[in-house]
Design goal:
Blueprint (H helix, E strand, L loop, with lengths): L1 H12 L23 H4 L10 E6 L7 E5 L5 E4 L3 E4 L5 H12 L9 E7 L2 E6 L5 E4 L6 H7 L7 E9 L8 E3 L11 E6 L3
């Protein structure tokens, strides 16, 4: 009882005393801190085919839903015109629109951008339903195969390849079932002969 009181007193006063090893550490409800600004935002880069929603708080005429990015990675936005957003993150686009609206049109704009639908990934070869499917965060080759109706009986688990959307050489990279897939990637599952 006396030791617990001293621990609570030391926590309240900001002092740090060593705690007896047999007693559990008190839960003071601290949350882990984000160590850098880049960890606080998504690193997903916008590209052609993504569909986004833009909300400007208190400005219905500037809030737009289901905007599909063009093949050049642009979008048309009121007041600001055509914006090139290819390769930007959601946070980057929020800042771009906020800066564009500030002063010219609004005093203190509050902008929120969300990805409504990601651009598709593609899977072909030994799956039941080859084709393009909407990307989902955390997608692996195994999950992509499931989305495509499952792997066929003769699908090879050792001959799977992906061509990354952002690879200008279009080189096929050998992958496993647990390899992460990005939007625009093309997965090929070859046939096993044994």
């Amino acid at each position: 009882m006396k030791l617990s009181f001293l621990i609570l007193l030391s926590l309240a006063s900001g002092l740090c005393f060593a705690q007896a090893p047999s007693m559990p550490a008190p839960d003071v409800g601290l949350k882990p801190q984000v160590t850098s600004a880049s960890q606080a935002y998504s690193s997903y880069q916008l590209g052609a085919g993504d569909i986004i929603n833009i909300y400007v708080f208190g400005e219905d005429d500037l809030s737009k839903e289901k905007i599909k990015l063009t093949d050049a990675g642009t979008l048309s936005y009121p007041v600001l015109g055509e914006l090139r957003v290819l390769g930007l993150t959601v946070g980057d686009l929020e800042r771009m629109i906020t800066d564009g609206l500030r002063g010219r049109y609004l005093v203190n704009p509050r902008v929120s951008v969300q990805v409504a639908e990601y651009r598709p990934f593609y899977i072909n070869g030994m799956v039941e339903k080859p084709g393009g499917y909407p990307y989902q965060p955390g997608l692996t080759v195994r999950k992509a195969g499931s989305i495509a109706g499952g792997f066929r009986e003769r699908a090879s688990s050792s001959k799977m390849y992906v061509i990354r959307e952002n690879d200008p050489t279009n080189k096929a990279e050998k992958v496993t079932m647990n390899t992460l897939i990005n939007p625009g990637d093309i997965i090929t599952v070859e046939e096993s002969f044994f």
